[in-house]
Specification:
With about 425 residues, this protein is of the alpha+beta class. Helix content is about 40%, strand content about 15%.
Length: about 425
């Protein structure tokens, strides 16, 4: 049997389809590895950015207890020292005395202030640290920025509390004056926060007066009106009237808006309507109406229902002396037994110093009445000009018809003009 020989089989070339399959597997492997890395990186960034704070993986990464969270952020900062948000979070946890020393906290706070000077958490920690050290300029800088730019009510109340303590601390008082002169805008939120902080409005008067006396600065109407209402309630009438004059920035007569050419401003030194509803349910409805001369007058319409007395009134800041009160009226269409009476009252005990009871005339003709009045030294401030039913029983029984009033003025008599001016300076 012949000896058989074996011929080796030449290697076969890999087919193109196999190369494509291998390339596909390689691409899939690279993509899966990249996706896994991307997912890990994205998860890490999301956890540290608090985008997915409730994932269990985030808790393991950023820590569960305060101590673990502090350690996690320290480690994170050693790896990523430029992450400002992580620095701020570490600063917040560092306020726990058991985790850090005061030197560490001070160093972290300084770095955080340099990186994020307007961050809410940084400002709050900076304010607390400065208050503890009685560093009033730094404390006020942080607190006023929180109040003004972050609408932080706690910061506004804290500033109000510091203002109430300023009389006991000269350095605090000086820092407040410097701060308000630098940026008066922060006074607005502090004024509205003062009642919640149980700080009397009178405590804010030095700063309020500083703003009013600064060239180019004025109280906003909303803030000024709030101050006026609160100061009136606290009995600071002269300071309140000073703010009233500051808001109007014009000549203020003894009787404000006596020509009724502008709408009534409540809560100050303009006309006040006794019945707050002032509608069809009221016994007396008060409004402003046009006269034939295209000027306004005050109209009081009576519905026959019980009347809230006084019908209208105004607080008057009057220095002691002799005055003449003048009032124009139309009461011809008023149906009443005794009519109406304008009375000037002393605030001490509501003593009637003078009264005018318009009577007669027609519904088309104006009648002018006047009376001289002495404001005694003991009367105090403020006097009050009121419109009431001349007979008190008509407050209960009501009236019908209407009455018009205009050009109400109070002037110092000529013999007294050398001792007082009609408008206080």
């Amino acid at each position: 049997m012949p000896e058989s020989t074996m011929t080796p089989t030449p290697p076969q070339a890999i087919r193109p389809a196999a190369w494509r399959y291998l390339a596909f597997l390689l691409v899939v492997g690279v993509c899966l590895a990249g996706a896994r890395l991307a997912w890990k990186t994205h998860l890490e960034l999301s956890c540290w950015g608090a985008e997915w704070p409730h994932l269990s993986a985030c808790g393991a990464m950023t820590g569960a207890t305060p101590h673990e969270r502090w350690q996690a952020r320290v480690q994170r900062l050693s790896k990523e020292p430029g992450e400002t948000q992580t620095l701020i979070e570490a600063l917040v946890f560092a306020q726990d005395d058991s985790l850090t020393t005061s030197e560490q906290r001070s160093a972290m706070l300084k770095e955080a202030v340099d990186r994020a000077p307007q961050n809410v958490d940084v400002l709050r920690i900076q304010a607390n640290s400065a208050i503890g050290a009685s560093d009033w300029p730094v404390a006020l800088s942080a607190l006023t920025r929180l109040a003004l730019y972050h609408n932080d009510p706690a910061a506004s109340q804290m500033v109000a509390g510091l203002i109430s303590r300023a009389g006991e601390d000269v350095s605090l008082q000086g820092a407040l004056i410097t701060s308000i002169e630098t940026n008066p805008a922060w006074l607005d939120p502090v004024v509205f926060a003062a009642p919640r902080a149980e700080v009397p409005m009178a405590a804010l008067l030095p700063l309020v007066q500083s703003v009013m006396s600064s060239p180019g600065h004025r109280l906003s109407p909303r803030t000024g009106q709030f101050l006026i209402e609160r100061l009136n309630a606290e009995g600071w009438w002269e300071a309140s009237h000073e703010i009233w004059r500051h808001l109007w920035q014009r000549f203020i007569p003894f009787v404000f808006n006596g020509d009724f050419e502008q709408t009534f401003v409540r809560g100050g030194f303009d006309w006040e309507v006794g019945d707050r509803d002032n509608d069809h349910r009221s016994g007396a409805m008060v409004d402003r109406t046009y006269r034939q001369s295209q000027r306004h007058s005050m109209r009081v319409r009576f519905t026959g229902k019980p009347i809230h007395s006084p019908i209208v009134w105004q607080y008057l800041m009057l220095p002691p002396g002799h005055y003449r009160l003048r009032i124009k009226s139309q009461t011809g269409s008023l149906h009443s037994d005794n009519g109406l009476s304008w009375q000037l009252l002393c605030p001490e005990d509501d003593t009637v110093l003078a009264s005018i009871s318009p009577r007669g005339g027609t519904a088309q003709q104006w009648q002018e009445d006047g009376v001289d009045v002495l404001i005694p030294e003991a009367c105090g401030q403020p006097a009050r000009l009121v419109l009431v039913p001349a007979a008190s029983y008509e407050s209960r029984t009501g009236m019908r018809g209407e009455a018009l009033f205009d050009d109400i003025t109070l002037s110092r008599l000529p013999a007294e003009t050398d001792t007082a001016k009609e408008s206080l300076p």
